[in-house]
Amino acid sequence: MSNAIVIVGGGVSGITSAYLLSKSKGNSVTVVAKHMPGDYDIEYASPFAGANVLPMNLDADSRWERRTWPEFEWLCRNVPEAGFHFKNCRVFRNHKDLVPGTSSLPMDPLFDLDPWYQHMMPDYRELETSELPPGQDSGCSFTSVCMNTPMYLSWLVGQCLRNGVVFKRAVLSELTEARRLSHTGRPADIIVNATGLGALRLGGVRDTAMAPARGQIVLVRNDGPSMLTTSGVDDGSDEVLYMMQRAAGGGTVIGGTYDIGNWESQPCPNIAARIMSRAVRLDPALAGGKGVAGLDVVRHAVGLRPYRKGGVRIERETLRDGADGTGVHVVHNYGHAGWGYQGSFGCAERVVELVNEIRAANGEDLSKEPTLLNFEAEKVAKL
């Protein structure tokens, strides 16, 4: 009999976990969520992301991104319907922003002068002084990817459905309620908690380390010649500067803010004006040299990143089901802040490992389990 696994959360973390878990014939996977791909709601962060790959974790915690990058690179080269494309990325540093304690934002290893990811990202090089815009002290360039996030989420759901994953809408007050929502008709053996910011208030979790990191962006029709970001801006300690062009006609995202603790769902016109002004100053080509007036706005939007003080939580625990007192295995995967996509496969891989620990403890033989991250194996099979 297969393991009944219920994943709570329909964002990129939950669905990627479902995808990897569904590769095992020993698992029957159900995804339960209030919001699903196709929805736009302030409670649901995944559709508002850019998203791209700009490594953000410390070297010691870089497994998540190191393991995800090869999967995204392979998808970009071989699966056009997943909604990826390659883009040159330029990361600019103002050295005063790199001094500890000078910013209210979490320290971002993306802007390190000797970054660990220089050996991972293709075509990495330090920029010449002549390549730097005014006000920037140094920078680097590399090849990255940017995706059309609604398109990618839909593709990911399709892969799950092909593997037998069942999706259900539900609103939970307690995490253990998910135990009775498996499509198998019997109580779930394992619950995966991928609720993101919902972990703050969900019964059985109520993680007070969670907080929103409000991100306001402007989506424009203009084609961005490259991806750009800077280590800081002069307009406010919770404002940042980045831009990226989504694949497949998804428009260019320019941002933004990183405002920890701010729940406001409505875009602020003054912030939007600063976002657009900064973008065209840094890269006039974005608007054809016409300044803010040259930007063709699709919409203004706000998303709430699932920030967690202390970093992502990926671990096992046993909770008591209040309905019948039964112990329930739980695997947590939440608190990714702004790097949920670019760490999605690496984190889901760890979820599978933790689930397999539970299965092995129950006496299962896992010697014939599939490779966790195996697009390369699938590619060979297709050839």
Secondary structure layout:
Blueprint: E1 3-8, H1 12-21, E2 27-33, H2 63-78, E3 84-93, E4 125-126, E5 138-147, H3 149-162, E6 166-169, E7 190-193, E8 210-220, E9 227-230, E10 239-245, E11 252-257, E12 259-260, H4 269-282, E13 297-308, E14 313-320, E15 327-334, H5 344-361, H6 375-382
Helix pairs in contact: 1-3, 1-5, 2-5
Organism: Cordyceps javanica
Family: Belongs to the DAMOX/DASOX family.
Pfam family, one: DAO
Word description of this protein:
- This protein is an alpha/beta fold and 383 residues long.
- It has two domains: 3-46 and 150-208 and 309-377, 3-Layer(aba) Sandwich (Rossmann fold), CATH 3.40.50; 87-145 and 210-308, D-Amino Acid Oxidase, Chain A, domain 2.
- It is 21% helix and 26% strand.
- The chain has helices at residues 12-21, 63-78, 149-162, 269-282, 344-361, 375-382, and strands at 3-8, 27-33, 84-93, 125-126, 138-147, 166-169, 190-193, 210-220, 227-230, 239-245, 252-257, 259-260, 297-308, 313-320, 327-334.
- The strands form two sheets. Strands 3, 4, 5, 8, 9, 10, 11, 12 and 13 form a nine-stranded mixed beta sheet that branches. A six-stranded mixed beta sheet has the order 6-2-1-7-15-14, with helices on one face.
Outline:
With 383 residues, the protein is an alpha/beta fold. The protein has 6 helices and 15 strands.
